[in-house]
Amino acid sequence: MVYLDNAATTWPKPPQVVEEMSKFLTEIGASPGRGGHKKSLEASRTIFEVRLKLSNLLNISDPSRIVFTYNATDALNLAIKGVLSPGDQVITSSIEHNSVTRPLAALGRQGVIVKKIPCDSQGLLDLERLKKTITPATRLIVLTHASNVIGCLTPIEEVGKIAKEADVIFLIDAAQTIGVYPLDLEKIPADLVAFPGHKGLFGPQGTGGLYIREGIQLKTLREGGTGSSSDLEFQPEFLPDKYESGTINAVGIAGLKAGIEFIESQGGIEKIREHEQVLFTKIWNDLKSISKVKLYGPENWSERIGVISFNLGSIGSSEVSHILDQSFEIATRSGLHCSPDAHRTIKTFEQGTVRVSLSYFNTEEDAEALIGAVEQISRTIN
Amino acid sequence: MEQQNYYLYVTFPSVHNGLTLEARLKEEEIPFAVVPTPREISKCCGISIRFMEEWQETILTVIKKNAIKISGIYKLEVNSELKKFKFV
After folding, report:
1. What is the largest CA-CA distance in chain A?
2. Which of B42, B44, B46 is nearest residue A33 as measured by Cβ atoms?
3. Is the CB of B21 inside 8 Å of chain A's CB atoms?
4. What ipTM was predicted for this assembly?
5. Predicted local confidence at residue B6, as pLDDT
6. What is the full DSSP assignment across A131-175?
7. A231 touches chain B (CB under 8 A)
């Protein structure tokens, strides 16, 4: 099976991830942050280490500002609902995933004013329009770092500066970029960054996190046991405990540790990006040469990540994806990719697109298999 | 160790803070133990760092230098079977 659905979750995982999780369950297994016995301490140290690794990855100085969540959606919900109250204005774009669009729509019903800045057909954000949309009521700007449909990058550094100048909180959805595109928070003035553990960081599903800049106060979405301040009825105010109620996914986070170590062992994010560039260039150029193929988003690698959307003539994207799966053993994703706004933006709301998304584990043979298959399918249509 | 008259305990808001100090103390080869926080002072997280009095100044310097968040430092007096905790 050629797996090209890495934007949904990366597969395969490095073998070390499985080993680390197995080791955690068989040798440690205890609940982190609960009790002072050896096993609990070992579990706590595992979590502590992963926070350190993540803070190195994001270039932040205080690892306690990273809280673990179950996925990026969970982190986005905490960030969005933790910041916004009725009467606040929030600015977002027209290429967001439902993980942003839906929490905002829910808050819209409760009196939050949601403004969507349209992006052009390449997914590019109009920064001037963004600036002009900011009012004294604007409390939050939330944008994806890269579209999960088009693959285009958002100019987050510029947006961060605009947000900072206007004293507006800036939240980045790094679902598609963490682990595959550098995100240096010393350079980018973002206040909140939501990320998954199971995509570019090669951790297992059920892992994710939210970075919260010092000084940003979020309302909690859930309260409960934290293993700290147990005598008090109210939730502690310090991080990471404030946002980590209940037993966290320690075995998953142990796996995430091995995922991040794998990236480090391969030479870091730059190396991963170089590998994906080679595959992207081959796939993009070869697909482009097939007459019935339509590709979406920017062609230039510096403006994008390894997520490629295409269509074949007017055939439904699901049909193409199904043929790729059934006849060629190639896993892609079709339809709307939980991002209807992005499809409206590139005018594929009806047809959807076939999405090919890369990982470090994909090979040139995978790229050739895909190109050969699309060529064959294209010959069968008029 | 048990012959000592005094132990000092550093308590922390979060286990994360405790493990931050643990990592620094290991680096600096300062003797300490990570222990469950005694109930008498357990308004904080479940673990404390226990050390002998002679290390107090050194450990305070490490805490300050690394800006580690702590809840307090307590002194345990082991005196004629009476345990007494004092906030230092």
Report:
1. 72
2. B46
3. no
4. 0.83
5. 79
6. HHH--TTEEEEEEESB-TTT-BBP-HHHHHHHHHHHT-EEEEE-T
7. yes
